[in-house]
Amino acid sequence: MTGIGRYAGVLLFVVAVLFAFVSFMHSFGKSDAQSFSDAPLFIDSVTGQTFHYQLHIGDMIPVLSPFTGKNTAYPADFSWWSKDGTILQTPEPVLMNSWIGKPGPTFAPISGRLVIPGERMPAPGSKPPPTKEEYYAELAQQNADTDGDAQVDPMPDQGGR
Fold first, then answer.
1. Distance CA 106, CA 132 (A)
2. DSSP state string for 36-51
3. What backbone phi and psi angles, to 5 degrees, belong to 63?
4. Do residues 79 and 92 make contact, with C-beta atoms less than 8 angstroms apart?
5. What is the dihedral of CA 149, 155, 158, 161, to 10 degrees?
6. Percent of residues, the chain, with pLDDT higher than 90
7. Among 6, 58, 96, 137, which is most buried by a count of CB atoms within 10 Å?
8. 128-151 in b/e burial notation, b at 16+ Cβ within 10 A?
């Protein structure tokens, strides 16, 4: 084997190993879900814009927003429902009222439906959460049914943050 042939063989071997490594990492590297959990979606409380943020030890919420240059970004929750009550394939990011100290339950800006914190994609045939109008009508009915003896909790499933 000549000197050039030997170098060509070594170079070909290195390229093949590099190609195999890249293919392996692409096939068996982090999934979209893992990448998403490493850098969850945040929503800026001033602009409403969303972005992924890599959390680090010692980070405090709210985090620095690239849109305002200030600590105005909070973890986004998601509404999986459309205005007409069908399940969305891509959820609507929502800033929960509990993060910003706003009283009352959170309703998705686009769909107008109650947002359940931490809700995952619902199963087909699931009942959608109420719209703001449905929610407050049901709350008024429940309070009327108790004859004023006890008030119904206006913020179910709005666990403290």
1. 9
2. HHHS-EEEETTT--EE
3. -100, 170
4. yes
5. -90
6. 60
7. 96
8. bbbbeeebeeebeeeeeeeeeeee
- 100's enclosing H/E stretch is helix 97-100
pLDDT of residue 104: 93
Question: What is the reported pLDDT for 23?
Answer: 61
pLDDT of 31 reads 44
Round to whole Å and give the CA distance between 123 and 19. Answer: 40
For residues 104 and 116, what is the distance between their CA atoms, to the nearest angstrom? Answer: 13
pTM: 0.66
Rounded-to-integer distance, Cα 43 and Cα 15, Å: 43
| CB contact at 8 A, 129 and 114 | yes
pLDDT category of residue 145 using cuts at 50, 70 and 90: confident
3-state secondary structure of 34: helix
Q: How far is CA 85 from CA 29, 80, 124, 127, 130, in A?
A: 36, 9, 11, 8, 9
Gap between the Cα atoms of 78 and 98, Å rounded: 14
